[in-house]
Amino acid sequence: MTRNLLKNKPSSPISKRCRSDDFTRLRQRYELWYNVIQDQSGTRVTRDGRELVMLASNEYLGLYDHPKVIEAGKKAVEKWGGGTMGARSANGGRRFHTELEERLAAFLGKEACHVTSAGYLSCMSSITGFAQRGDIVIVDKNMHSSVWDGVRLSMADVERFKHNSPERLKALLEELDPSTPKLLAIEGIYSMEGHICALPEIVSVAREYNCFIVMDDAHGIGVLGNQGRGTADHFNQTDQVDIIAGSLSKSLGSTGGFIAGDRASIEYLRTHSKQTIFSAALSPCQSACALAALDVIENEPQWLERLWKNTRRYKEFLDGLGLDTWGSETPAIPIIIGSRDKAYHFWKRLRDKGVFSIFATAPGVPPGKDLVRTAISARHTDEDFEIIESAIRYATSKM
Ligand SMILES: Cc1ncc(COP(=O)(O)O)c(C=O)c1O
């Protein structure tokens, strides 16, 4: 039982706000988010003593527990210990960082790469490291929160354009002062919707107006392109995208993030990004696991093949039931339910029937797009699909 450690309840306005916030109460009351998983193995997790099929991991290739990844993590901890105890700019740089950076840069088709301890930091840095007061950052409306935070901290002006619309981007750029430096921020695969960026059309507009292009490809790496090299590679546009940022926590089976580009840009970022200058460097274990996962991605093509086979199977199943998947074209597949209450019950029924998914409601998604987010893994088996399909059929029948 939790003991009340405070004799007198704090009375500052902020303490009161914390105690009376409706959204926090809603979250606690309905046990939304912050799940505690007691055990896991492959695609199965244990929550409250019950085994569930994980249908919400962004770990698309299922490499987090690949024997080579586990072995690499163990060896790194044995040699280097638990942490780096400092920032790259100070005492935290190690040779495993530069090794990972060189391998990632080569994989992504870029000259240089910089790794940080979170994808969130990397994606923020991909804006704050380049844009400054007086610039304009142009952002797709559905961008991830890490990029929005980067935009705010950069002190640059901001303009948004309609999600994935090259026409609206062009109309916007047409109105802006041609002499102002511009940074365009897009995602490779939009994480909530599963949409693939209309990259060739967007690049063509952005180039016409001389934008510096930053792409957050957290969900595209490992999923699209030759051997999983990402969205830019998928469209043969790697040389057109100035910066590719992303996460090591999706297909790379680890935690951490990266920013890749030409050498001059990455060196500039290392001098200007506070998120890297003042934050401890990626840990030995995280670095080693990501590097081992990269090896697996390059040498074991079966995971990418299985991912797409499973994705097609799942998408056909959802389409057959007439469910709205927001036009997703990738393994990140939302099921749009449309109201908070209904989405909650759909999510809860999936859990009751043994499937772990994620409930998302406004402001996390646009109003009216309340959804249950699901994601497919290369590791899902026929047996997993039996459980998933029967749970979704049940939840749909009760809608
Ligand atoms: C599109 C996108 N960018 C950045 C991030 C942040 O990555 P990380 O979870 O590794 O901090 C995420 C994670 O959810 C994401 O979906």
Shape: globular
CATH topology of the largest domain: Aspartate Aminotransferase, domain 2
CATH domain class name of the largest domain = Alpha Beta
Number of helices: 15
Average pLDDT, rounded to a whole number, is 95
The main β sheet shows up as: 7 strands, mixed
Write out the strand line-up for the largest beta sheet, numbering strands in chain order. Answer: 4-10-9-8-7-5-6
Strand segment count: 14
How do the SSEs run, as a string of H and E? Answer: HHEEEHHEHEHEHEHEHEEHHHHEHEEEH
| Low-confidence blocks of residues | none
Topology summary:
Layout: H1 13-20, H2 22-29, E1 39-41, E2 44-47, E3 50-54, H3 67-80, H4 95-108, E4 112-116, H5 119-128, E5 136-140, H6 145-154, E6 157-161, H7 166-175, E7 182-187, H8 199-208, E8 212-216, H9 231-234, E9 243-247, E10 257-261, H10 263-272, H11 274-277, H12 284-299, H13 302-320, E11 332-336, H14 340-352, E12 355-356, E13 358-360, E14 371-375, H15 382-397
Parallel strand pairs: 3-12, 5-6, 5-7, 7-8, 8-9
Antiparallel strand pairs: 1-2, 2-3, 4-10, 9-10, 11-14, 13-14
Helix pairs in contact: 3-12, 4-12, 5-6, 7-8, 14-15
The structure holds pyridoxal-5'-phosphate.
Pyridoxal-5'-phosphate is lined by residues 118-120, 123, 144, 146, 187, 191, 216, 218-219, 247, 249, 257.
